[in-house]
């Protein structure tokens, strides 16, 4: 553990270097996450006629631009990476290093965050410059909770994706499950439609799933849709509990998976 | 030191006949076979030994190597490498071994090898000054100057393999598992890699287990060979003794204008080109034949063991025969 922490700065630096080397792929990847812009166009045209359940155009602009920023800052492709490395046997190289492979993946994807931040900076500028600025939180308690929620969303997404990628030890092609995941995420995270606008039973189900903590909760904190600071920190606590729990599950699954690993091709 | 006792590694493999009907049937009913990649092998390798690990394709060499390196969990048996159980992959174990696979690269593909070296330095917790010194030595021995700052994808196969070796040895392991380290390399590069491996073995008293389809690698590097076929160990011992046992003949080459019937009386003609003749001679008649050739004004006389390829072919044929 101590060695992994000591190696983390180097791992992050190499992760950033790789992200720069793969910048074209990253741009293409970012282009696949523009769904909030499509939904923004749809909902603002609805809200221009009349507010929808007390959500006006300005609220939708704030929500979807914030969603785009959160999604791009906290997402990664580690599930695909792990699945491919297990399938082709290239994960063998990681298994020969004296740190847990998760530390290597962590460095790679943390290292890419600055480039992701750079890519979404124009969206953040538009958000702050628009009239939607009025709904953004500014008090220190909410801003601190927002920062913690962004870190938590990153950690939770990473833990969930590491777990999904680890399925490749047990399944020939886990990509199908990853695709199913994305459909479920899109609904229960608030990625497609803000959770408060969904039917009550969907909201109730979302409370029992981790997805809203990956996107909807940080966005709700950012645009002042959480009643007070205590409620915001409660969401953050729930989010970090999910992240820790899923990381534990992923770690156990990894150790079981490695026992089944056949290292074909690598 | 490496100790292997009764090692077995079996894989469960899904079998399906070709065609759409078989594909549809396999949705409900799957047939599995057990492939015994390694089946009850035992051997011991002492510290500092260089051992060739030989066998035809699919014999179980790479599977055994992967078990020894901790990538695969054995189905049965005991494996100890430098006092560690490889499957547990203790950091202390991983610091002492390396696995180089000629057909797989571990360098970061789109970045220069120097970045892989920085990564390894960090994850192995190496002292920067010591790592720089080691890298300097490796750069000199392998001729890496000018290569380490070019993206890996732009290196030739030989250049990449040299950089792979440097990455694999930066932490100065004392047990080397080398799986086809010279595959696809030209002859000059093969010689460079062989010389380097021998030098590393002697400098660090490192244990080397080598697989190679190039028998020249084995002859040049490994006084001892372990041969497996079909997952079973079929020979473990001195390479020269194996050659002598399997083919107790020598190849005698010379240049001389001798009548064909006289040459045939000396031994079985293996090759005759541009006046240079190579004959196979039983060892018991070697002195007599060499004396005769010299008496008949033969020049450029050379006596060699038969090629290791021939020895292996005969060994596999003998062991497989009912």
The coarse silhouette of chain A is globular
Strand order of the largest sheet of chain B: 5-6-7-3-8-9
Return the string of H and E elements of chain A: HHHHHHHHHHHHHH
What is the straight-line distance between the termini of chain A? Answer: 26 Å
**Mean pLDDT over all positions of chain A:** 90
Counted up, domains of chain A total: 1
Q: Tell me the structural class of chain B.
A: alpha/beta
What shape does the CA trace of chain B take? Answer: globular
Describe, in plain words, how this protein is organized in 3D.
The complex is a heterodimer of chains A (266) and B (322). Chain A is mainly alpha-helical and 266 residues long. Chain A has 14 helices and no strands. In chain A, helix 3 (35-49) packs antiparallel against helix 4 (57-74), helix 4 (57-74) packs antiparallel against helix 8 (113-129) and helix 5 runs parallel beside helix 9. Chain A is globular, with a radius of gyration of 19 Å. With 322 residues, chain B is an alpha/beta fold. The longest helix of chain B has 18 residues, at 187-204. In chain B, 40% of the residues are buried. At the A-B interface, helix 1 and helix 6 of A face helix 3, strand 5 and helix 4 of B.
Summary tags:
heterodimer; A: 266 residues; mainly alpha; 14 helices; 74% helix; globular; B: 322 residues; alpha/beta; six-stranded mixed beta sheet; four-stranded antiparallel beta sheet; 12 helices; 13 strands
Blueprint (SSEs and pairs):
The complex is a heterodimer of chains A (266) and B (322).
Chain A: H1 2-21, H2 23-31, H3 35-49, H4 57-74, H5 78-88, H6 91-95, H7 101-111, H8 113-129, H9 140-166, H10 175-188, H11 200-207, H12 211-214, H13 216-222, H14 229-260
Chain B: E1 2-15, H1 20-28, E2 31-45, E3 50-54, H2 61-68, E4 76-81, H3 91-94, E5 97-101, H4 113-123, H5 128-142, H6 157-169, E6 175-179, H7 187-204, E7 207-211, H8 215-221, E8 224-229, E9 232-238, H9 239-246, E10 249-255, H10 260-266, E11 268-273, E12 276-282, H11 286-295, E13 299-304, H12 308-320
Parallel strand pairs in B: 3-7, 3-8, 5-6, 6-7
Antiparallel strand pairs in B: 1-2, 1-4, 8-9, 10-12, 10-13, 11-12
